[in-house]
Amino acid sequence: MTPEEAQSRIAARRAQVAHHDERYYREAKPEITDFEYDVLKHELAELEAKFPQFASVDSPTQRVGDDRAQGFVEVAHRQKMLSLDNTYNEAEVRAFHTRLAKLLGVDDLRYTVEPKIDGLAVSLTYEDGKLVRAVTRGKGDRGDDVTANVRTIRTLPHTLLGAAPRVVEIRGEIYLSAAEFERINAERAAAGEELYANPRNLAAGTIKQLDAAEVARRKLAIVLYGLGYCEPEVVRSQTELREQLQAWKLPVVERIWHAHGIDEAWAAIGELDALRRTFAYGTDGAVVKLDDMELQRTAGETAKAPRWAIAYKYQPDTARTRVRAITIQVGKTGILSPVAELEPVLLAGSTISRATLHNEDEIRRKDIRVGDLVEIEKAGEVIPAVLRSFPDERAAGVPEFDLRAAVGGKCPVCGGMIARVEVAAEEAQGVAWKCQNYDCRAQRAGRLGFFCSRRALAIDGLGEVVAARLVELEWVKDPPDLYDVSLETLATLNLGTVEEPRIFGEKNATKLVAAREAAKALPLEKWLYALSVPDVGESTARELGRRHRNLAELAESPLLRAVVQKADLLERRELEAPASRRNPPKSEEDKARRKELCAQLDAEIAALDAGPLAGVPADIGPVVAASTLSFFADGPGRRLLAKLRELGIDPQGTVVTAGRLTGKTVVLTGTLPTLKREEAEQLILAAGGKVSGSVSKKTSYVLAGADAGSKLEKAAALGVPVIDEAGLRGLLSGA
Hints:
CATH superfamily of the largest domain: DNA ligase/mRNA capping enzyme
CATH topology of the largest domain: D-amino Acid Aminotransferase, Chain A, domain 1
CATH architecture of the largest domain: 2-Layer Sandwich
Mean pLDDT: 86
Structural class: alpha+beta
Shape: globular
Strand order of the largest sheet: 2-11-10-3-9
Helix content: 25-40%
């Protein structure tokens, strides 16, 4: 691999890891398994080690995952709350011991081994024995204050029993028991709502609820195992810490192992593996810790992890079964997704009969065919994934799976035509088959469910089951039609059958109606995203919302027309260039003519850049512009606009015509004293400025806070002005 290829691969992997960090830490909705994520991050770490010239303190391998969310007050940890280095490899566990022994100059080391709990990390502060604060890990040095929510955990004492230090930070994990998870999902199934994926995601999402009463209804639990800041010191080892936690009557892990040397530690890891499925909480690994806390302090830490501890992660739970059939699901964008129908098999406490196959290319890569013996992995998800097939066990003559042939070249839901297209939708990446009928019933249901999802308009109470039923009954065609369905009608909605009815009910209907009314006041960017406009993601919707007053203006947008016009001019200029290899000039006269034409085209492009396209970000490119204009000019888009006018819904954009930072680009780095990153970004955007993630010569300011990283160094090298929070407020006020 050349340095150029490595740099490109590193950038791509960092972007992927950052995306999955956002889904896991902030949204509690991971798209891939922990194992797949760890493989991705390990590859990135190896590339950075092999090509150190591209290493960066801003890399995901060099920092703690950030779980902070909007709506919570940020609080600094007295002692940083780090994550753990992890491995799936025995040799790396032994290498951990070798490094420690060399670092400390002592080979005779004692360890503790304890369960690695699959929950949400939290730090509790007790002052004079009283619980005063609960804070998430956040980004390591500061996190979100979730005290009100943590106080609802019934198993957590608010007062320590007996003598207690003046101040102590106690670290642990919030989780949801399997029994409580099943109870909550059973209630949602009865209400026709989408089921939660797994206990860890639900626990993380619950603790970030802004309504403590709602948190209390979900019976969260907690287990404590770690120590942060403590004054005065009360324990000298992990062993003593566990004893002290028990003396304070705090909930602790069922068992820890005491190991003299790495051989005993490795044996304990095996013993824990045999017991872990009997615990109340999910356990995906074992944590090996140096027992002596003085030696821990000597060993120290990296920017993201202590050097005195390591997590060994068990291989994901897998099972073998056979593929009975491969069926096809249709998502909100029309993507056809194959699913393996399996002979039922018990896996990680659940009976599994279905598993995702992602797309046709994935099926062919893994060579999966109907009737095959396959290995599946659950890893906490509702629908597991097929890891591999066993061709040697296959009967002779079984054909490869052909998706188009399997559905007869038509959508299995509506019978519409399908086409193989390049996609970057949530259901698939790369090339996939797509239903071309916008009014396909499956797409309608998918769009309605997405319209009401938390990332869109947050109309609580309408999940996949309810959406599908409303569309099936033809009560809803386009998402805004939901506003035509009365509370009384919703209350009588039968989600079951005539023989076994499941009525939606007045309580659920009332909650849904209140949420849809509240959604009317949401800004243009939210509505634009919720309406599933092709090629418009969240960031693009936000940018479009900042540049248009309402949907009617967006539908006829001069800005988008200018983007398309510029793309056409650039393409024409490339074709007419005097030095064009694709279309070389035929004579000197033709070359001179082209030179004159290109000068004219350059002038037109410059006029667009200085006029309607001034400050327009890359998110609004020609594909997005053409797609948006085409959508609102065509039947489906016109239908949506007419319906919203009929309902009196007119979402407003957050247009900034001029401000203190108009035309300025600001890069943020580090932690600000009082402003959250999102708050600072909103102030900059509201003043007409643009927020960028990287420093260049075009950067106007770098806004730097505590623990600023390499962006600060790059700003100094390029001569870019650096300001702090006070400097930002000065710019905004004109001082």
